[in-house]
Amino acid sequence: MEKFAKHDRIWVVGPLSPVKASDEERGGPSSIPQDEVIAWLDSCHVDKSVVYVGFGSQITLTKRQMEAVASALEREWVLVDEFGVAIRVCNGLRSIPDPVKLGQIFVESTRMARPERVRAMELQKTALEAINKGGSSYQALDQLVQQISCFDAKIIRSSM
Fold first, then answer.
1. CB of 12 within 8 A of CB of 136?
2. From the CB of residue 85, how many other CB atoms can be counted at a distance below 10 Å?
3. Could you identify which of 16, 102, 149, 154 might form a hypothetical disulfide with 97, taking C-beta atoms 3.0 to 4.6 angstroms apart as the criterion?
4. What pLDDT is recorded for position 56?
């Protein structure tokens, strides 16, 4: 990021949320009890048939906001072309995928050998490494806090 901005005052912080965070640490309780969600996810773990789509951790998007984000991702093919974790099912906003082909894609997408699944597991590993002590998110947040602390000290000294 620093390379693109041409200065070093950018801190790429995220992901941050620990895997086993409490309700308070996650920003509040869910409408579905966490133990029910975990039990359901655990039941899907064997075949790894769950696809997680996250639009944020600190806010709840309105329906219009979620549609705008989804539309932007769809138009730009970010998940397909850049991250390599999605499968293109049709071209263009107005096209409609063939239901038979779409069904086949759903079934095939749960197979462990799919390149998209392998890439998603690689990204999962990278994200988990980032939040651990010494990881990139951990370090970036620490550097940001240090920089902000310096600003506070300078402001206090200059006001005396």
1. yes
2. 20
3. 102
4. 43
> Any idea which residue has 């392998």 for tokens?
118
pLDDT category, 7, cuts 50, 70, 90? low
Say how many domains are in the chain: 3
Radius of gyration of the chain (CA): 20
Same-domain status, 99 and 119 = no
Query: Which amino acid is present at 11?
Result: W
The reply to whether 146 falls in a domain is: yes
Does residue 99 lie in a domain region?
yes
Residue 55's pLDDT band (cuts 50, 70, 90): very low
Burial zone of 86 (CB within 10 Å; 0-12 exposed, 13-18 middle, 19+ buried): buried
**Whole-prediction pTM value?**
0.47
Q: What is the span of the domain harbouring residue 46?
A: 20-50
Q: Which of 3-17, 57-71, 128-142 has the highest mean pLDDT?
A: 128-142
